[in-house]
Write a structure and sequence with these properties.
The protein has helices at about 15-25, 50-60, 70-85, 90-105, 110-115, 120-130, 135-140, 145-155, 165-175, and strands spanning about 5-10, 30-35, 45, 65, 90. The chain has about 180 residues and is α/β, with parallel strands linked by helices. It comes from Tectimicrobiota bacterium.
Length: about 180
């Protein structure tokens, strides 16, 4: 009985690296390069609903986290949401993660969070919940444009380039026991 090859997807932003890896790996027995991409967005689809798994996924760079019992249409919408550059969490795990964050209280001062205004901290928390700019605007009673500007400011102050990285930043603070909620929320 012939053993199935290990299937490999190469993801790197440099074409020459992708080409080199494909050449190297395609000549190795037991390996099959099934595709390559400049970048990838990852949605974790799992049975695990504990906050540790969620936090680990976010820190590892996942843009989304869904439980396997999700409906097909919801999964399709999640893929489209992540493809647009947004992040998301399954509502049932969002509640667990937020509850853990709330229980941690206000830890020691953090340089990154200290640079953010209370409004920006509130918006960062909503980003971590997977809210879109439009949803954030509605919740904090600001225009979409103002929220977009705030998100840009947050990313700049934290030296980040993506919303998912901002969510991971907040999740990392939570996993280390740091403050993640702005004063007065």
């Amino acid at each position: 009985m012939k053993e199935k090859p290990i299937r490999v997807l190469i993801v790197d932003d440099h074409e020459v690296v992708r080409m080199g890896l494909r050449t190297l790996l395609s000549h190795k027995p037991g390996l099959e390069v099934v595709g390559e991409a400049r970048s990838a967005k990852v949605i974790m689809l799992t049975s695990y609903a504990d906050e540790e798994a969620v936090l680990a996924s976010i820190v590892a760079g996942a843009s989304g986290y869904l439980l396997k019992q999700v409906r097909g249409q919801t999964l399709v919408e999640a893929i489209q949401t992540v493809a647009r550059g947004n992040s998301l969490l399954d509502p049932s795990v969002t509640d667990k993660v937020l509850e853990r964050v709330r229980k941690m209280g206000m830890g020691s001062a953090d340089e990154g969070l200290a640079m953010l205004s209370e409004r920006e901290q509130r918006i960062l928390t909503l980003i971590a919940k997977g809210k879109t700019n439009k949803e954030i605007a509605k919740e904090v009673f600001l225009s979409d444009k103002t929220v977009k500007n705030c998100v840009s400011s947050i990313l700049s102050k934290l030296n980040l380039t993506r919303r998912s990285a901002a969510a991971a930043y907040l999740a990392t603070r939570a996993s280390k026991g740091g403050a993640t909620e702005p004063k007065g929320s």
